[in-house]
Amino acid sequence: MRLRNKPWAREELANQPSLVIPNPSEHKGKWKELFGMDQPIYVEVGTGKGRFLTEMGKKYPHINFLGIERYESVLLTAMQRVKEAGLRNVKFLSEDVNNVEEFFEHGEVDRLFINFTDPWPKKRHEKRRLTYEDFLRKYEKILKPNGEIHFKTDNQGLFEYSLHSFSKYGMILNQVSLDLHQSEFQEENIMTEYEEKFSKKGMRIYRCEAVFRRSSM
Ligand code: SAM
Prior knowledge:
Elements: H1 9-14, H2 31-35, E1 41-45, H3 51-59, E2 64-68, H4 72-85, E3 90-93, E4 109-115, H5 133-142, E5 143-153, H6 156-168, E6 172-177, H7 193-200, E7 206-211
Helix pairs in contact: 3-4
The chain binds S-adenosylmethionine.
The site of S-adenosylmethionine has 20 residues, from helix 7.
């Protein structure tokens, strides 16, 4: 992703503490209280400019959504989208996914989305892929027992790698699609920014759901 530096982004994000939550570790175990709505929590890691979460937030008002994004300039667009839409059930963390265990209690999250994450194709960068086993271990802890990851990508290599990583971890794979937009799952599908961009170029979109077998520890 090409990122332009926007020095004012940090300040603008800080001016919206009800949408971009400062000190998120203070809300560990208490996210539902922060939302003021006792309903399931779905988290998107690497949320980008927020198209997916904004549309999900509109479509599913009975779910609380949290997006984690480490680049402030990108997050600014996401925050503005949600603000304009007037959504109370979508909020963001300006944070690195590596630290996700600091923000959520064991079993606090009901579902996790990973959409069009950076593929890091070089073998020596494997540990940076958000479907690498160290990340799966973290996700497993914050997800409720038998929690699900919903994963989409345009990158065949990352998809193959991730299927392998999920299965090596002992997860169950469901709803695997090698061409999401031509599949039965398309009707329910909400597109992300990257998804729209790549599918317009005629690229296939891969999708699967991976379920942890173990309980939240
Ligand atoms: N999910 C969006 C979409 O589908 O349009 C954005 C996709 S973009 C290729 C990947 C995003 O993940 C970038 O905005 C990047 O900053 C974010 N990201 C990657 N690794 C991250 C990490 N460790 N912590 C937080 N955000 C991360």
